[in-house]
Amino acid sequence: MAENIRTVEHATCTFCGCVCDDMNLTVDLDKHCITKAENACVLGKAWFAEHTIENRPAATIDGREVGVDEAVEEAARILVNARFPIIYGLSDTTCEAQREALAIGDLIHGTIDTTTSVCHGPSGIAFQGVGESTMTLGEVKNRADLVIFWGGNPGEAHPRLFSRYAVTTKGMYIPNGKKDRYIVSVDVRRTQSTPVANLFIQVKPGADFELLWALRALVRGRRLDPSVEERTGVKLDTMKQLVERMKTCRYGVLFFGMGLTMTRGRHFNSGALLALATDLNEFTHFVAKPVRGHGNVTGADNVVSWTTGYPFGVNLSRGYPRFNPGEFTTVDTLSRGDADAALIIASDPAANFPKAAIEHLHRIPVIALDPKATETGKLARVAFCTATYGINVGGTVYRMDDVPITLRPAFESPYPSDQEVLTAIKNRVRELLNKKAKPKEARKAA
Amino acid sequence: MSLTLALRVAPQVPMEAEALTFDRVADLSESDIAALPLLHGNEKAAVGDFFKVSGRANGEVHLEGDLGRVKYLGAGMSRGRLVIHGNAGMHLGSAMIGGEILVKGNAGDWVGPEMLGGRIIITGNAGHMVGSAHRGGTIGMRGGEIIIHGNAGNETGNGMRNGLIAIGGNSGDFTGVNMRAGTIMALGGLGWRSGAGMVRGSIVSMQPAELLPTFSYDCDYRPVYLRLYLLYLRELGMAVEDAWIEGEYRRYSGDSVELNRGEILLLNRQKLS
Predict the structure, then answer these.
(1) Helix (H, G, I), strand (E, B), or coil: what is residue A149?
(2) Do A281 and A327 share a domain, yes or no?
(3) Residues of A within an 8 Å Cβ radius of B
(4) Whether the Cβ atoms of residue A273 and residue A252 lie closer than 8 Å to each other
């Protein structure tokens, strides 16, 4: 048994947006599993341990096992015949697969959305409306002396963000690590992340916008009604001290999470934080960055953006991209009953979307690609079992700071990759569209 | 007999119908109108595939049926009157220039986005983003009137530059956010964070509201222009109480994060006779 052990150095963990690329994996090639993941955090260890080769059919139609080619044929037929097809997910697969999904969306004049729309989609809207003062995590490691975490709990959700980049790590201009940094945590309650903070600010639930707005007013030296203390639960003196610290630091960072983006106010909450960072650049260098969840959700934003010009919620019905969250985002197109077919890639909306959206998924033909058995896979007309990215499949993913990283797979899978399945669907869609002889699609295919 | 388009086949997926404006159909025959293009999902269709067309436009065009899935009705319209007997879908009167749209029902999100002139009247409720800028844009409606007898959703008048939005019921969160100028009158209540980022303009409500800490109290007074507006709204059929016309208003100025030249006027209910 010991003879068939393989080690993979500098492998990449694709569990969360940190995309740590310093994993040393020990792989049992006989059992098709990873027995040791050196350097991985608790989440990464679970990610590597749980992805083995499962005994599932590579493809099913209505729960009946079929060949991959037959499933591809049925998937292509569904997509070509749909009038308002949606493509959703994409955040847990490679950029190469995402590109193929985008190409399908372009061919069928569909609506393309990613899991961004249910996590940092509001930040995407805010980036467009307010702008973003941004950075890489390497800059944070080497320069940041004031780090503020707002509405997130990286200690549990992104454990290595603290040790690799933002809190304890030593950097070029931060030689003493944590001693050289001042850490602030803003949240509605104490979490596992709170103990690392030099200052914890407990804001009342639903008052993030008011607190951010008050900080903006203080930074700009504007009038502020004293009722702000009652509204936010934060003392005015505390706000003033924080503002002074922000204005006088050498390099400040605002990391923000879904506690900000998915509470009442959404894109305005993100926008207020981004605007605060912009205001602070009158005094010092200040940046802001959303702490992203899925392993390649940032890649999805990048691929959709470089292909269509917009990061998510993009409609191609007219043959050109239009961006309108609320109109073209998947929760909305499903809840309103707009979509008449769905291609779901590496996501499980049937497990976590609102009831109305899930009910509509039951009414329309769904094509699902996922390495694991999911609720979406169960209701899907066509389901593919695919190889896991980063473990069985190579390719490119983007870290949360928009840095692309190459994957080093650990062992082979008998299942096709998302990219292979999507490429096959794309080619068959193109053939069917040519047969259908729709003028626009025929021109495009030629 | 005025021109009537009666929905005979309900769209299965969202439909986009910029062709259904007074300007486009006013001078056409029934057969020419039936041949006008629509977009049904990702497929091109014709008006006649979904609507029965009868009569000729004599200053008015009537649309009948539940058009809640039909978007861009009256988009870019510059003259005439469009009467919708039922619900209307998103982007009603988008970038409208003139004329009047009357909806005898509810309207979806984005009523009159980036509107330039004319009047839209909704007898029921409207969705989010009434008279707002499109996503990515900074300037919302620049003129005209939007009259909603029921409630409106969030971000009413986002980036509004000019004109009037009147809401008979409640207005949602971020009413008048990033407003440049113009007037929003929410005769019912205001949602959270009204006027956030507003530069100039007026937001009026007859109910108490919790304002952002970047708004500050100025005075109590009886603005003359408000009487004129309220009398005008009463003429348009909105339920305006005498006490509102004669009443005193508390004036707050903001948003101090921006220029601090906007105002929020709240009816002083303690001084109602």
Answers:
(1) strand
(2) no
(3) 82-85, 108-110, 125, 128-129, 209-210, 213-214, 216-217, 220, 222-228, 231, 264-265, 268, 316-318, 323-327, 338-340
(4) no
- The alpha carbon dihedral of A107, A116, A53, A408 has a sign of positive
- The per-residue pLDDT of chain B, averaged, comes to 95
Cβ B214–A214 below 8 Å, yes or no? yes
Taking alpha carbons only, the member of B84, B138, B79 closest to residue B114 is B138
What mean pLDDT, rounded, does chain A reach? 94
Distance in angstroms (rounded) separating the CA atoms of residues A213 and B214: 8
* Alpha carbon distance B15, B70 (integer Å): 5
Give the model confidence (pLDDT) of B240-260 as tens digits: 999 999 999 999 998 999 999
Question: Residue A59 is part of which domain span?
Answer: 54-118+295-445
pLDDT of residue B269: 84
Residue A130, helix vs strand vs coil = helix
Among A259, A290, A321, residue at a domain's last position: A290
Examine the domain organization and report whether A237 and A172 are in the same domain. Answer: yes
Pseudo-torsion of CA A225, A229, A234, A236, nearest 10°? 50
Tell me: do A260 and A397 sit in the same domain. Answer: no
Residues A114 and A126 in one domain: no
Q: How many structural domains compose chain A?
A: 3
Hunting for tokens 């994996």 — which residue is that? A25
SS3 A366: strand
CB-nearest partner of A324 from B42, B135, B193:
B135
Alpha-carbon gap, residue A390 to A405, rounded angstroms: 11
A264·B192 Cβ contact <8 A:
yes
A270 and A306 in a single domain? The answer is no
Q: What is the pLDDT of residues A118-153, one digit of tens each?
A: 989 898 999 998 999 999 999 999 999 999 999 999
Measure the CA–CA gap between A75 and B175, rounded to whole angstroms.
44
CATH of the domain at A184: 3.40.228.10
Contact A211, A239 (CB under 8 A): yes
Question: What is the distance between the alpha carbons of residues A36 and A41, in angstroms, rounded to a whole number?
Answer: 12
> Cα angle at A243 between A239 and A246, to 5 degrees?
140
- Distant-in-sequence, close-in-space partners of A343: CB < 8 Å, separation ≥ 6: A75, A79, A85, A86, A87, A88, A101, A104, A110, A366, A367, A425
**Cβ–Cβ gap B39/A317 under 8 Å:** yes
- Å between A100 CA and nearest CA of chain B: 20
Per-residue pLDDT tens digits for B118-146: 999 999 999 999 999 999 899 999 999 99
For the entire predicted model, the pTM comes to 0.94
pLDDT of residue B136: 87
Structure tokens, A250: 């050498």
| Torsion over CA: A124, A125, A128, A130 (sign) | negative
Strand blocks (E) in A279-415: 285-290, 314-315, 322-323, 341-345, 366-370, 382-385, 395-398, 404-407
DSSP string, A407-419: E---S--SSPPHH
